[in-house]
Design a protein that fits this description.
Strand content: under 5%
Number of strands: 0
Structural class: mainly alpha
Amino acid sequence: MPWERPVRPDHPMVVEGGLVDGDTRLMAVCLFEELLRTGMSARDLRCMSADPNYQALYAIRASLGDQQTDALLSATVGRVGVHRFQTRESTETSMPAMLTIGATDGPRVGPVSDAKGN
């Protein structure tokens, strides 16, 4: 079994796997949904599925073909949407800040001098 093999220093952390039986279309929809809900766009997912560095998305495109992958992605985007948000700051809704200056040892009596003693 792969997990029983000794670790080789020149090949220590490579993920090895293979294909398993299952519904590739269902897996694709689940993966698309998950990534769309994190804020990725359909364009991002299309680009990632053409890049072999994104192994699961690339395998989906290789298995289903361009047309089926794009059709599944479009249908999923239509059902789930793309979650985006913006944070804006506005002075219109802000309340003025009140600044209170005080001393911990009571009021200061006498002239205030600068750092040079003037």
